[in-house]
Amino acid sequence: MDGSENLGDDVRTAPGYQAAGRHSAVKVCRWTADALTGGKGCYKSTFYGIQSHRCLQMSPAADACNLHCRFCWRDQSWEYDDSPPDFDAPESVLERSVDAQRRLLSGYGGDSRVKVTRLQEALEPRHVAISLTGEPTLYPKLSEYLQLCHERGMTTFLVTNGTHPEAVRALDPLPTQLYVSVTAPNREVFQRLTHPSGEDAWDRLKETLGIVRTLDTRRVLRHTLVKGWNMGWEDQYARLDSIALPDFIEVKGYAFMGRSRHRLSRENVPSLVEVRAFAHRLAKLLGFEEAETSEEASVVLLARGSRPRFLDGFGPDAKESGC
């Protein structure tokens, strides 16, 4: 996902973003652009077989989050408010998101590196990465949105901070792949690193991990490593991971980008060697396998081995289609 240098109070009006209604936004990921212009695209292509040039990166809650993570590239000018706004219908959010993606991609038609067939495919997104910014589970019509995406033949990757277990429990249908961010090994580190709005956020995250264990979908935990803040404690991370018993774990190094540069420094960026060392120790504790590494994204994939890595219909055989 991209960072931005000049994010204002409303992310939907920030450079490079397109509004998709009153509370949703779309931004072309740099990996989507990379895949369009002849590169190999996002690490999720190598890890899971998605087609990066056909990936729609969006958020249905662009300016709403209950955490204020130090490593987040957003400017975090939002205020968490439990009072419900007038939410857009999921049909409107999806249609406006696809339209916004097409507007953002239209300029690539003049790039000599972009094949016409590749751009035509990109204008019909096949994957929806529900992340980008904000906490998507704050959108109360998320299940209906997932259903519409699936009816349209699109896979869905939902990323959540895990502090709204009631929303995760209520998901029906489930996303194609569910990510839960576990960014701290214990309550003390979690409080210092994420600055949650509610005092019970840590307990709610642990409740979500218990729910994740029961879900019949592809389940991923993500550990974003910030040197000097949340590295080490592999045994405590392993105990948390064992609650959810996910299919995959992504161990990812913090990237010094966007507004996070006002809260952290380059010294907080772990080297790939350090990320790999953490992942190796964690894998050994959990009995997971080290399945893949992306040097560009500084991320190591750990797999439990019980579920195929590639989505149905994707994977190595789809490389010619742009994976």
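The record above closes out task 2.4. Task 2.5 opens with a second protein, given below.
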Amino acid sequence: MSSMTDIVFLLLIFFMVTSTLVAPNALKLLLPQSNNQTAAKPITTISITKELRYYINDEGNVRRIEFREIEPFLQNRYGMGNDEIFISLHAEKSVPWEEVVKIMNIARKNKYKMIAATAPER
């Protein structure tokens, strides 16, 4: 029985260590707060920092992208007119509404569905 507990503890340590490596390239953004949630699973994430820098999650790697490159990137990667594609938009609280609307217009024009990411309300 003691060898079985050793194996369980080794597995526990293994999963704890590997779970911290899941999103090493995540951006730290101060998101607006909300209690609403959606069950949709986004296929990619677009992030806007307070310095108005755009980042896109490209198959697990977060990379910086210029605004003018966002629409061609999405069209090349996911095509146009597929209304089953969900894109998660992470914009910091201090980002002007105009910048958020620009990304939403790209999604609407290409018939992607947009999910606005928020932090849970306290």
